[in-house]
Amino acid sequence: MKACAESSAANGKLPEFLARRVFAVDRGHSSPCLEWTAALHLGYGWVSHKGKPHLAHRLAYEAAIGPIPEGLVIDHLCRNRKCLNPDHLEPVTLAVNTRRAHPNYVSDDMSVCPNGHALEPGYVIPASNGSRRCLRCERGENARPYRGPVKERTHCPQGHPYSGHNLYLTPKGSKVCRTCRAASYRKAAK
Asked: Which of 83, 109, 140, 164 is the most buried (most CB within 10 A)?
């Protein structure tokens, strides 16, 4: 990380009161993220300006580009909530911002979700904000398939049998190998 208070204030990207609280961090984008280093709220930079609390990325956008259009929110194209780089900020509708942030959300004009599932009737969940979600993604159908019930373990990971004197049941019902337990006590006592 390198301090960029001087460079960002000099090139006019950020006003001085914001520029002195950011660091340049290269995260592989065309320009480095200018990360907020002061107070955070839900991961976003938070600053008091002219006696009122503000989200720092909104102030940075307004200072560098201009007013945020009515009905739009600022989206971080770099997906870094602490970033104040105006090149990484874009005004979009709340629906677009939500869709970008949550890949399981799908729009009305999509026939296939981002994971390739067909959006057939019965496999789409309406969300409270008016968008839709893919039911197959929500169920985790891209996860490993179900392999049946877990089999009863008869031996500990080191191969000792869970039987007779070697079996200890904890108050919660978990099985513990007495041989391994004794070995761990001996090792801890050394």
From this structure: 83
The identity of residue 50, as a single letter, is: K
**18: closest CA among 1, 34, 2?**
34
| Angle at the Cα of 85 from the Cα atoms of 38 and 107, rounded to 5 degrees | 110
pLDDT in tens, 92-149: 998 888 777 766 555 666 677 767 777 788 888 877 766 677 788 777 765 555 566 6
Look at strands 132-134 and 52-55 and give their pairing. Answer: unpaired
Task: Measure the CA angle with vertex 64, ends 59 and 69; round to 5°.
Answer: 65
Buried b (16+ CB within 10 A) or exposed e, 43-57: ebbebeeeeeebbbb
Domains of the chain in sequence order: 2-92 (3.90.75), 103-138 (no CATH), 152-190 (no CATH)
- Per the CB < 8 A criterion, the answer to whether 105 and 32 are in contact is no
pLDDT tens-place string over residues 20-58: 666 656 555 567 788 888 888 888 888 887 888 888 888
